[in-house]
Amino acid sequence: MAIRHRKKQSTTRLWLLVALLIAVCAVIFLLPAGGDTPAAQAAEQTEPDIEGTTLIKAGMQAPDFSVELFEGGNLTLSSLKGKVVWLNFWATWCPPCRQELTRVQADIVDHFAGQEFLFLPISRGEERETVAAFREKQGYTFTMGLDPERAIYDRFASNYIPRNFLIDQEGRVVMTSVGYEPEEFEAMIQKAEELLKN
To answer: pTM of the entire structure?
Structure first.
C-alpha cells in the first residue's frame, strides 16, 4: 500500500515537472524578438489606432451624405455649402460622448447662433427610440441626425467615438478630433470662430 502511494506521488511529481517544462518553453517561444516584454506588447495592442481608423482627415473633402433628422426630414451635407459645419458622431452608451454633449448647447449652439454655422451631431448605430429616450432624459432640443446603420459614419471612420469633423464653407475638413478632451474641444471652437471670420 505504501509502495503504491509513493509511486502515485512520483507519477504526480513527474507530471507537474513536465507541465512546468512545457510552460517555460511556451513562455520562451512566445517572447517577442527585440526584447519587448509581453506586458509592453499587450499595452501596444490596447492603444487605440486613431490614425488607422480615420478615413477622412484634415485637408480632405468631406464625403457628401444625406441624414435623417430626429426632428423629421433629411439634411444633405452639400446643401450646407457656405456654412461652417461641425459634424459630431456619438452614441447614448458612450461616456465621453455624453460628457461632450453637455457642453453643446451653451458652448456651440448658443455661441454660434445667428452665424453661418451648424452643429450636426449624428447618433451612430442607434435606433430613433433610443435617441428619443436619451434626448428626453437629458433635456436636449438641438438638432440631431440618425445613422442607425452606420452608413454615414463608415464613410468618415471605422472605429471610435466621439468623433468630430470641422468642415469649412467649401466642404473641406479642416480639423478632426477623437474622444473628448476639453482643450481639444476649445481648440475646435476657436478654429470655427476663425473660419467664420473669413
So the answer is: 0.75
